[in-house]
Prior knowledge:
Oligomer: homotetramer
CATH architecture of chain A: Roll
Largest interface: A-B, 35 and 35 residues
CATH class of chain A: Alpha Beta
Shape of chain A: globular
Number of helices of chain A: 3
CATH topology of chain A: Thiol Ester Dehydrase, Chain A
Amino acid sequence: MTDTRPPAITLEEFADVTRTGLPMAYRLGLRAEAIGYGTATVRMPFDETLVRPGGTISGPALMSLTDYTMYAALMGALGRVELAVTTNLNINFLRKPAARDVLAECRIIKLGRTLCVLDVTLTSEGDDRPVAHATGTYAIPPKT
Amino acid sequence: MTDTRPPAITLEEFADVTRTGLPMAYRLGLRAEAIGYGTATVRMPFDETLVRPGGTISGPALMSLTDYTMYAALMGALGRVELAVTTNLNINFLRKPAARDVLAECRIIKLGRTLCVLDVTLTSEGDDRPVAHATGTYAIPPKT
Amino acid sequence: MTDTRPPAITLEEFADVTRTGLPMAYRLGLRAEAIGYGTATVRMPFDETLVRPGGTISGPALMSLTDYTMYAALMGALGRVELAVTTNLNINFLRKPAARDVLAECRIIKLGRTLCVLDVTLTSEGDDRPVAHATGTYAIPPKT
Amino acid sequence: MTDTRPPAITLEEFADVTRTGLPMAYRLGLRAEAIGYGTATVRMPFDETLVRPGGTISGPALMSLTDYTMYAALMGALGRVELAVTTNLNINFLRKPAARDVLAECRIIKLGRTLCVLDVTLTSEGDDRPVAHATGTYAIPPKT
């Protein structure tokens, strides 16, 4: 879904969501660099503690980045729906990431009333080839 | 796969793998409580920093636990194959976990020569109903 | 979910659902052999037209069997909810199936109000080792 | 993966693969309309026997189309690797398909030496909004 509507959340607001509510993401240093209506780009700064045997970035770090980027893209469409929760995530690990920042690009595939399906591609900075690709579903909290 | 063969790694050795090679898992306090041939049970101690909006444990923490438990079960069958890497992980989040320790139970569904498929069920301590269920595939490094 | 409540549909009723509403399943000869509350066992009779290059049963035939078995298990818990639809299906193909009937066993992992998550294991008749394993989600139609 | 290399199989050859080796796909009338290097577009003609309760096209028919389109895109990159087999397929059903032909577009996300990961989007003819989205992995047979 590419959409020209303005995003429903600013980078500053999403940073605030992170700081106040997402300690794991905050500790990983995850930082949204762009949020559009249903899209987001997030950077995970490289850090030695992310490395696992084989000199590659750990799967859990990449999954954390993936989930966080979906959350950002969803809020880009719906605003501060903090109570949205992941119901399914499927990820394929494709290549050994470099010892560099990882970038995640997310777009909404389908925004329904109660469910949202999203697509995420991860790359190492400076290299277009994906290191991982994921699809996920978020449950959207009912409006109150 | 239930198997009566002895495990190919001890709890102490796996704790050592964690301490020396898996800083994210180590920081989360993940602790294997049982490892059999192709099976593992791991505990994630409850901690306030795991909580996300809605008072639930964050998806990335549950995914980290899931991936780590698969790694333990794989080593239970193959020994210290540190270079084994996740190629696919699919997880369904089923219920809001309680503010309690989470337990993960993993078993190997199929152990092939190059790929291993595993199944993981997560529960909150003291409650049998699953909070998440996952399947994943590890690529097994070639013997050298 | 193992449950001792009686099934909400009989084998005869489910055969009727199939005959009247599921031409693809009917043509494949899929036949529920047991339906419990949230569980089902279905047989796919071997047939030369299911075979694909390599002498193995085609993935789409196995996926059809998987989806149909989930539908049966769901109706075992909820009765004739014909309008329930699959929202996600994830399948791992594990072994080359033999040129024999395939059996699918399904159980509900989580039955919610709007979503149901199920688990399916496929085996070749006479061999316990799984040829495929799947998890899926059905959306449950609202009661009217 | 967009690639300007010529496809490794022609539409005629792939139709021949279908006619001689894939009876289920042949019976569904699946027809590749374009095959590039690692890409494919396939049409599934609408037919009353594809319909399931609710007036929607059955999930198994959409899964058959998905798997077949991945097979076409893989052969677009590698030629007649008939023995390539699906190892994982994950599909999200997004919208009720219309009573019309369904079109599937596939591209390779990652072509490795032994595994290939692909992405498929399904739409109803004449409507850009996806009815389903899938990712899958094929195992590539060793060269002999």
